[in-house]
Amino acid sequence: MNLNGWKEKLFQRYLIWSCRPAKIRRYLRAILPSLPLPDPVDRQKVRVAALQIKLELCQNPVAFADLIHRRIKEAYVAGARLVVFPEYLNLLLFGVLPGFEQLEQAYVSEADDSKPAAGEGGDEQISLPDLFRFMTPAVLPLLTTLFSALAIVYRLYIMAGSYTLAANGSVTNRAFLYGPDGKLIGIQDKVHLLPVEEEWNLKRGKNFKVFDTAIGRLAMPVCMDATYFETFRILENHGAEIVALPIANLESYNYWLALRGIWPRVQESPLFGIKSALVGSIAGLTFTGRAGIFAPLELTANGDGVLAEVEHFDREAMAVADLNLKALQELRQDHPWRDRNPALYGRYFPEIYQR
Amino acid sequence: MLVVALSLSETDLSTIEGYTSDIKKLLTAPKPAVAVLPAHSALALGLGIGKLNNFNSYQETFASYIADGAEWTSEFLDLHGRLSKELQIYLAAGTLIEQEKDHFYQTIYCFNPDGQVCGVQRQTHLTRFELDLHLSRGESLDLFHIGDFRTGLVIGNDARHPEVGRIMALQGADLLLHCGAIAGDYTCWQQTAAMWTQVQQNQFFAVEAQLSITVGGLSFGAGPAIVAPCEITFGNTGYLARGNPTSPLVYAELDKKALAKIRNDYPLLKLLNPDAYSELYRGEPQ
């Protein structure tokens, strides 16, 4: 089994055709409402939404568009100015591949060592990176068209989640940010890869970016990037106020395991953190998480660093909270315990990373 | 290796004899290889036995110790050298104030079972309160050996600064001994945001001694804890042992093989991407 046969190439052309921007735009025009302009941004009350998406396969691009539209509308109705989608959102589109269920069974068997993997002794199995490459020409125009159109109609900032996409011979895990005018504000490639992503030969991002917007300075590192304090120190140094973090955690849910990541990073480098989570199973992989919105302990009513968090780790949900950027600025300017020690850092960094 | 974190709760601080007797009693049953006292131990004991003076505010009391406490600091060090030898343990003696030229530092001394100093660490990151007292920052983070554990010492506010844990981890630290003190009402989140966080992103053990008494009119309340990477703790909590503000001590056995296994299975430090950090500390003075 491979992706270079004539049938597969033909199907890929069909896939690209079915995801074409003109079709998606036409579909959206028919269903989208006309809405009034939002109120001016109040820096003391920037409402944001963190989405938790259940990993359910979409059988066609329109089903994907409907799902994304429904979730954005939900955030709009809740009054959000920024809505954040999770990591690996392209996995939902595997449902458009004919025969994906059989392929998924093969992946499940491979994940379970006790069972022989499908394809063993016979067809060569298609790897997930092969599928990412195969689908990129269809997925990229689809997501670009879809999120841009929805951002315009709902006048929202949308962090569209991250997608594993091929470009220039390599695959990256890339997040996208759209503005209320529908324009792509920026992209961010995942800088720290999971061991499994290294096995897949994904390409690491080289740096971290911060984007100036009307609702504050935004950044969007991806999942594993929040394991390392360096990510948030760099973003803070660049003036980030809000970090939107898409995650897809490959582990059984445990409160403490899930606490590692954005919560500690927000405490170390004071800013607001929005975690969106992909949950559910596909191809022998199970993702868990709880979407939430986090802040320095000093800026949360209970002193626990949590502004809002969804209740369950395995189903669709949304967390909504108001961010007070003015309070964050005041905390940073008059912080009770934060300090810098340039002499210490100069003595060890960056050489110590080479040990 | 068995380790103990103490809080000075339920410890007699009114006489040297009462203090040493209580410390010995607390450590008799677990018989640890390593014990850690919380921050401000020298101040608390000095005030308790009348070697230091209490003033109207904690700030004035602390300032008085900085200005006039050199003699007591010396006695405090002698006392804990003797204690470590008598108990045949490594003892991180909490924190004291030491002077070098015109600079004052908050410092931990660790004694080996021979009663000799085996590790010294100055605080490297100061709170606003400590800056107002004109304390100075240490400029190095050094490790020493306790058996086959490469060990570092961490003071108070340094636990909230991830550069400290990272520098020690990249030097090969297996164990950090943390002398802490958190003022105000008890909340587990301040502790979680400190040493627990450093342990999880660096994969070492930490013995966290937290002061749990009132000193100079200021109440300190946090629980002692022994912290490890989540994967090698019961329930994945990241705690091998965890007390509350009334716990005089907690103890736990550290399993170096379990630590090696999680480092091998999930090599967090090998997955760092230093090429992306080039701008982070660029231009810091050498």
Structure description:
The complex is a heterodimer of chains A (355) and B (286). By secondary structure, chain A is an alpha/beta fold. Chain A has one domain (6-33, 46-336): Nitrilase/N-carbamoyl-D-aminoacid amidohydrolase, CATH 3.60.110. Chain A has helices at 6-18, 21-31, 61-77, 100-111, 128-154, 195-199, 229-237, 255-259, 262-268, 325-333, 342-348, and strands spanning 46-54, 82-84, 157-167, 170-178, 184-189, 211-213, 216-219, 242-247, 272-282, 285-287, 292-294, 306-309, 317-323. In chain A, strands 1, 2, 3, 4, 5, 6, 7, 8, 9, 10, 11, 12 and 13 form a 13-stranded mixed β-sheet that branches. In chain A, strand 7, helix 7 (229-237) and strand 8 (242-247) form a beta-alpha-beta unit. Chain B is α/β, with parallel strands linked by helices and 286 residues long. Chain B is 31% helix and 25% strand. Chain B is built from eight helices and 14 strands. Chain B has one domain: Carbon-nitrogen hydrolase (Nitrilase/N-carbamoyl-D-aminoacid amidohydrolase, 4-Layer Sandwich), CATH 3.60.110. Chain B has helices spanning 16-28, 41-48, 58-68, 70-87, 128-132, 162-170, 188-202, 256-265, and strands at 2-6, 34-36, 90-100, 103-111, 117-122, 144-146, 149-155, 175-180, 205-210, 214-215, 218-219, 225-227, 239-242, 249-253. At the A-B interface, helix 7, helix 8, helix 9 and helix 11 of A face helix 5, helix 6 and helix 7 of B.
Q: Which terms would index this structure?
A:
heterodimer; A: 355 residues; alpha/beta; Nitrilase/N-carbamoyl-D-aminoacid amidohydrolase; 11 helices; B: 286 residues; six-stranded mixed sheet; 8 helices; 31% helix; globular
Task: Give the arrangement of secondary structure elements.
The complex is a heterodimer of chains A (355) and B (286).
Chain A: H1 6-18, H2 21-31, E1 46-54, H3 61-77, E2 82-84, H4 100-111, H5 128-154, E3 157-167, E4 170-178, E5 184-189, H6 195-199, E6 211-213, E7 216-219, H7 229-237, E8 242-247, H8 255-259, H9 262-268, E9 272-282, E10 285-287, E11 292-294, E12 306-309, E13 317-323, H10 325-333, H11 342-348
Parallel strand pairs in A: 1-2, 1-9, 2-3, 7-8, 8-9
Antiparallel strand pairs in A: 1-13, 3-4, 4-5, 6-7, 9-10, 9-11, 11-12
Chain B: E1 2-6, H1 16-28, E2 34-36, H2 41-48, H3 58-68, H4 70-87, E3 90-100, E4 103-111, E5 117-122, H5 128-132, E6 144-146, E7 149-155, H6 162-170, E8 175-180, H7 188-202, E9 205-210, E10 214-215, E11 218-219, E12 225-227, E13 239-242, E14 249-253, H8 256-265
Parallel strand pairs in B: 1-2, 2-3, 7-8, 8-9
Antiparallel strand pairs in B: 1-14, 3-4, 4-5, 6-7, 9-12, 10-11, 12-13
Helix pairs in contact in B: 6-7
